[in-house]
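Reopening this ticket.

The earlier resolution said the output was attached, but the attachment link was broken on my side. Pasting everything inline this time so it's all in one place.
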Amino acid sequence: MSGNGKTTQGNSDTAEPDTAPSDTTHRAAGAPPQYFVQQERIYPKRVWGKYRKLKWVAMIVTLGIYYLTPFLRWDRGPHAPDQAVLIDLQNTRAYWFWIEIWPQEVYIIAGILILAAVALFFATSLFGRVWCGYFCPQTVWTDLFIWVERIVQGDRNARKKLHEAPWSFEKLWKLALTHSIWLIIAWCTAGSFVLYFNDAPTLVHSFFTFDVSPTVLAFIAGLTFSTYLMAGFAREQVCTYMCPYARFQSAMFDRDTLIIGYDEQRGEPRGKHKKGESWDGRGDCIDCTACVQVCPMGIDIRNGLQMECIACGLCVDACNDVMDKVGLPQGLIRYDTINRIEAAPGTPEKEAPFQFIRPRTIYYAVILAIVGGTMLGALILRKPLELHVLRDRTPLFVQLSSGDIRNGYVVKILNKTHQHRTYALSVEGLENPSIEVKAAGGAESGSLYVPADSVGTYHVFVSAPVVPDAPRSISLILTDSHTGASDKTSSTFISRREQ
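Inline output:
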């Protein structure tokens, strides 16, 4: 994959290929050579077509999900939050509709991340960088910011002219309005992100009553600035230099992956064309650079597939529009595979259908099935309670006046239900054991109370006659007095010191 297709945009609608400066370019005699040039600002031109419509739909849907999801409610009972999607940092819980994740279940988070990564690789192997072109947050918010910029300042030529013009009242108010709207969008974006970590209606009400904590305000300020910077200024540089996906995307590509491609056999030799001129001895590309002018990454797709290409399809819309105007078939630039694009006209390879089932896609599908099945099984078999036992180390044991030996244990009970529960604790592996529970207000082994969606901690003493073998393995069993659900964990019982 080539990364040499970056283009610069001057004062006209045509964009010339960017060339590396030589020792004799852009410098006076005797001046040191220029090895770096300033990043050229890109002004994408407005285009309308099938893929631009798809991008609008994707942007509206994704932004709608992002901004509205914190306000969705999900009834979990009176003892749990009713926000459908919530990351409760204070109580160390994460809620996603009917799924609740505890800190001990970090493997679920790991599984979700693995599933998302493999799904991205699978989609990339089939359709190229569709995630980057349509659903990536950087792409979505950049599209939104460019749309605001176009509404206030005009289309490509008007924005370039305004940017290069000297300061005036018109330039001042247009830039001020543009950046003000950008900041409002960035603030809404940051505020919505914070809502995922707090009860949304409560936090919104706190804003109107000026009762927001400094921590929340600091997070909103930082996220507002980062959104404003990334979508308003960094834009394509984030995709090219900051995002690692652009660097290793080619590892998921093969010659049957759908990409944005230029049909060089059909388009070359390119050249300007006037109405009424013959097309004999020349290609269909009229070198109008419309594909370059609409590209949000500022590349020339005619130079081949490049690292910067995000497969948004806007160049396809622009080229198809030009082909319609000159009376030629669409598809000079199109979504296609390398095998089909490079095949000679009229050959079976040129018309071969897109291959969904390939060794690469089978590998990813199998991994997706395994990880997805494992995650589904983990959620279905997830226990409503967990018992964790930590044995006292000081002292190892105590011999009572009756001659019995007593060991101490810290018992933690995880009640993962949304109702208050009472549990019974029993011991296996000892003859005639007795259990004593130390807790505020007193408690018995048959009535260990744990509130809904919380952890109960008890100090438990287990006593039994001296056993011949020490230490002895024992099992502590916790049983839900209401449902009968139980959990079991192993520990040791020590009755004498090792010789």
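Reporter confirms the inline version is readable. The first strand starts at residue 7 and ends at 9. Residues 1-24+38-382 form one domain.
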